[in-house]
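**Polypeptide and fold**
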Amino acid sequence: MDDPVVIDDFYDSNTLEFLQKEVASPKWEFGQRSVPETQFPMWYQKIYYAGDTISNFFYRSIADKFCRTVNDYFGEYVNIERIMLCGNTYGQDGDIHRDRQEPGNYTGVLHITPNFKPHWGGETVIYTDPITTVEFKSNRMIIFPSNIPHIGKGPIRSCGQLRSVLSLMAQVNV
């Protein structure tokens, strides 16, 4: 199955509140690139890359639930490879990209920003056939194979908020 899975109210309110506080923290760095030739980088916070230790309880539980959900919907047992927060403001659309080229990897995009208005844009577009466009809604999780091209769109100018997402990537156990 290559169709994206969209799940509303993915995490409990305590976990979502934790993530929203993380977004509000001053840990952001500028320079995240979807692909090496990206001309307009985005904001990000590195949380976990393979080989690190996830010492934070919330991030460990976030990773565990994501991995269980991949198993439930795609029938694959996976290990977390990456967790990071990404942020876009007006004019900072990502680039169409694949997180991994090879099969056996899964991407999760969790929309975080609270009170995000539908007319502000910020949708996630996944280039399946037909194209899947997922409206931005807080606590909405989108899961799909990492080799499917996708893009996170920045909000419109009148938004005035950071479009924040939690990006997760997992690889099939070998």
Notes: The chain has a mean pLDDT of 91. The chain has one domain: 5-172. The longest strand covers residues 78-88. The first helix runs from residue 13 to 24.
